[in-house]
Amino acid sequence: RIRRPHRHAGLLGRGGGDRSDVRGAGDDRWAGVARATREQQHADDEERRSYAITAAGREHLTRWLAEPVARSLEGRDEVVMKILLAVATPGHDPRGVIAAQRDATMRVLQAQTRRKAQQPPPVLAEAIQLDRLILTCRAELDWLDLAEQRLDAVGNGHRVDPATDRPATSTHTTAPRAPKGGTR
Fold first, then answer.
1. E-assigned strands of the chain?
2. What share of the chain is helix, strand, coil (3-state, %, to 5)?
């Protein structure tokens, strides 16, 4: 998600705008705008204000746009958490979690692919966002297939020790039984 000051600075960096342009960025609070812009008052109407990016705001925007977005494997992903908890918790089916997620992701992919085919977005930003959503869905489907393959490699119905990523040596929750053929 783009932080408010960056989003507002980007909108205003294209040549300024009025309150509706900035409000259309999804935020009614003006703290981020005040830091990155200067206000130009129209004498005839209090609601008609024009906003333009300051030199400092333009410099900040330029630096921010040049920085690559850091991707982290440490972020919380609810789908990953659900699958891993289903793997590690007796009585839960990780394949069922994968199947449900696959169905949901496929529905989104199909809907967005139909949307793109029926009426290509007239605005470049919408086209780029739609492409991102479609490709993200495809990548998630590939990843779900891979997760299922890993489960198959471990074996059907076997729990995985989360510390080693290997099949758990025992799924028993009670004390071990005495060996057959006698007592100790």
1. 17-18, 37-41, 49-53, 160-161, 166-167
2. 55, 10, 40
* Structure tokens, 152: 């198959």
The SS3 call for residue 156 is: coil
Per the document, the length of the chain is 184
Give the pLDDT confidence score for residue 114 in this predicted structure: 93
* 27 in Cβ contact with 35 (< 8 Å): no
Separation between Cα atoms, residue 174 and residue 157, nearest integer Å? 19
Question: Rounded to an integer, what is the distance from CA 156 to the centroid of its chain?
Answer: 30
C-alpha span between 169 and 161 (Å, rounded)? 8
CB 21 within 8 A of CB 10: no
Residue 87 corresponds to which tokens in the numbers above?
A: 């793997």
Strand partners, 9: none
Distance CA 96, CA 65 (A): 41
Q: What is the pLDDT of residues 30-73, one digit of tens each?
A: 444 444 544 444 445 556 677 888 989 999 999 999 998 888 77
174: which 2 tokens?
A: 């009670």
Give the mean model confidence (pLDDT) for residues 22-34: 46
H or E, element range at 111: helix 94-118
